[in-house]
């Protein structure tokens, strides 16, 4: 299979944003046909075909940032050789035909590096930036887009949709705040366009920073050949990288549901849920974990009839029951139907282009119809390009992740692994921190990973944020728990968002905080204060001594700390 790559832009620009794509997979284009338009800081340019060929696949999308050298389209192998006849009998020097012909010649390159990083997600690209700061010669290998799943198909696009859902909810509730709004509606294309623009802006920012840190980015699939060599293939191009140290950051992939009908027409994953072009009337979400519940609140807020089917006896089953109760109450208010202890056994094609989901609840069999069925049952490790047996890498006891020490070092001293491929904690910010730890260890600095106080956030409505131990994990220890409700917080009431509470957990014997849970407005922003205290062994009295600005939602943390020391001032 051949590829058409972006070879030049207006002026001296080396990157731009795709504003329009004129072709689709399966189209046959002739010489001179427009392929796409790209806007850069120096102006706009149209890329045209230099010869007749079939477009096998479009590798980019409108709104995406693109750099010179990146692939645009897949075409049949050898298509560039089938050129239109010229009156003179051969192509003119410098013609578009020669341009694409030269571009598609095989290229082989060898690179020497201090550090080669396989994977450009939040672990890999942050490791590259850190290594660049330390003056290392770095090569970053990425087969798709910089930023990985988190930036392109996960954290950022999901939270962009969360914000759109929040705004629409506020608009519908505006009358309660004295604001009249009529005929409010969701423009899904506009929502997705904004999401793509934000993702494109952030991808461009990463690309800019990597260039500033002198990080060489190699596009393509990275294969770990041995402890010092990575081979990268992209189309006809082949790059061999010899590195003193290698960091594996290949991430994860969406887990599949192995039941009859799991590949039927209306099945989507979290990736497709971020790319819908039409709003479904009804959606069934299989899986009531973090991903499932975030999408449940997003699409329910957009007006979709959502049903969540969870196999376990509770949604969000790693979170304390009192927090889950708040989320269930909110879900009920937003019309989300939650079915626990439900085993999906089959997905059938129904009438009117719907799908029928067969669910077993105890001994009862029930059937639910939907326009879209979102499978959100977790993520698997991505070992693509990593033949651990051939290289000699040791996996963890479950065989689903690469075994590493506290410095992210594998059993092969110069090979490190970070992020989801280690299966330590499947969080973007953990992967980023692991990347920094790995690079610093390579540079001779021993800063060990500490997983005991990692903030975890769930962007439901309201948000959930945790740090340290949960109350259920501390059963049997000598602890004291204090809860302060947001309905007693002035800022939360002013926001019209007073559901939830702050919960602080203190070890009585050691007089220090060991856990915190926040469910409510701004939880994701507030949790860092509690995490800082837990990480540094501070107690609730240090929070009390710290003056908190008024009126803020953070005052709820101060009040919860007071609750651990005689009682809150603004709640009985």
UniProtKB/TrEMBL annotation:
- The chain's disulfide connectivity reads 150-155
Protein source organism? Propionigenium maris DSM 9537
Q: Which domain of life is it from?
A: Bacteria
For the ligand (FAD), the binding residues are: 159, 222, 420
Protein name per Swiss-Prot or TrEMBL: Dihydrolipoyl dehydrogenase
Q: Where does NAD(+) bind?
A: 287-294, 310, 378
What do the Gene Ontology cellular component annotations say? cytoplasm
In this protein, the active site sits at 550
Q: Which SUPFAM superfamilies match?
A: FAD/NAD(P)-binding domain, FAD/NAD-linked reductases, dimerisation (C-terminal) domain, Single hybrid motif
Lipoyl-binding domain boundaries: 1-76
Biological processes, Gene Ontology terms: 2-oxoglutarate metabolic process
Cofactor(s) needed: FAD
A Pfam family cross-referenced in the UniProt record is: Pyr_redox_2
């Amino acid at each position: 299979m051949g590829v058409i790559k972006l070879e030049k832009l207006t002026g001296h620009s080396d990157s731009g944003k795709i504003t329009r794509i004129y072709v689709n997979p399966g189209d046959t284009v002739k010489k001179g046909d427009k392929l796409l338009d790209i806007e850069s800081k120096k102006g706009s340019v149209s890329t045209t075909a230099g010869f007749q060929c079939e477009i096998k696949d479009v590798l980019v999308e409108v709104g995406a940032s693109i750099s010179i050298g990146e692939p645009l389209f897949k075409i049949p192998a050898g298509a560039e050789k089938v050129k239109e006849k010229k009156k003179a009998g051969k192509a003119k020097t410098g013609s578009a035909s020669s341009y694409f012909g030269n571009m598609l010649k095989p290229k082989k390159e060898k690179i020497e590096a201090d550090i080669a990083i396989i994977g450009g997600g939040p672990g890999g690209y942050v490791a590259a930036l850190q290594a660049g700061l330390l003056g290392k010669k770095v090569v970053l290998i990425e087969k798709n887009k910089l930023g990985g799943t988190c930036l392109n198909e996960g954290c950022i696009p999901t939270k962009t949709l969360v914000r759109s859902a929040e705004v629409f909810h506020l608009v519908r509730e505006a009358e309660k705040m004295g604001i009249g709004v009529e005929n409010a509606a969701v423009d899904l294309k506009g929502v997705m366009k904004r999401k793509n623009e934000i993702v494109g802006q952030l991808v461009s920012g990463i690309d800019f920073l990597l260039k500033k840190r002198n990080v060489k980015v190699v596009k393509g699939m990275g294969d770990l050949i041995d402890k010092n060599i990575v081979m990268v293939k992209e189309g006809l191009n082949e790059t061999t990288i010899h590195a003193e140290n290698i960091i594996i950051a290949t991430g994860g992939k969406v887990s599949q549901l192995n039941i009859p009908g799991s590949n039927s027409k209306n099945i989507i994953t979290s990736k497709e849920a971020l790319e819908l072009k039409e709003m479904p009337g009804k959606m069934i979400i299989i899986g009531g974990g973090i991903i499932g519940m975030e999408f449940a609140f997003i699409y329910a807020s957009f007006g979709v009839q959502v049903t969540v089917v969870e196999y376990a006896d509770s949604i969000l089953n790693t979170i304390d029951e009192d927090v889950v109760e708040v989320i269930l109450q909110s879900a009920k208010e937003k019309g989300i139907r939650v079915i626990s202890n439900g085993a999906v056994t089959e997905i059938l094609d129904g009438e009117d282009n719907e799908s029928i989901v067969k669910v077993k609840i105890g001994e009862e069999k029930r059937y639910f119809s939907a326009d879209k069925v979102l499978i959100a049952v977790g993520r698997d490790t991505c070992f693509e390009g990593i033949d651990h047996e051939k290289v000699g890498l040791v996996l963890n006891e479950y065989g689903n992740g690469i075994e590493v020490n506290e410095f992210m070092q594998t059993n092969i001293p110069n090979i490190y692994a970070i992020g989801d491929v280690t299966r330590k904690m499947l969080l973007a910010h953990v992967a980023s921190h692991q990347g920094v730890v790995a690079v610093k260890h390579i540079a001779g600095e021993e800063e060990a990973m500490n997983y005991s106080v990692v903030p975890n956030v769930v962007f439901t409505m309201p948000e959930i944020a945790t740090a340290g131990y949960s109350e259920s994990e501390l059963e049997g220890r000598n602890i004291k728990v204090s809860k302060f409700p947001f309905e007693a917080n002035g800022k939360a009431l002013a926001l019209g968002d007073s559901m939830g509470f702050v919960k602080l957990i203190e070890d009585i014997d050691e007089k220090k905080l060991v856990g915190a849970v926040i469910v409510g407005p701004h939880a994701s922003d507030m949790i860092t204060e509690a995490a800082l205290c837990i990480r540094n062994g501070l107690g609730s009295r240090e929070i009390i001594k710290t003056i908190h600005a008024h009126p803020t939602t953070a005052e709820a943390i101060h009040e919860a700390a007071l609750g651990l020391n005689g009682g809150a001032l603004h709640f009985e």
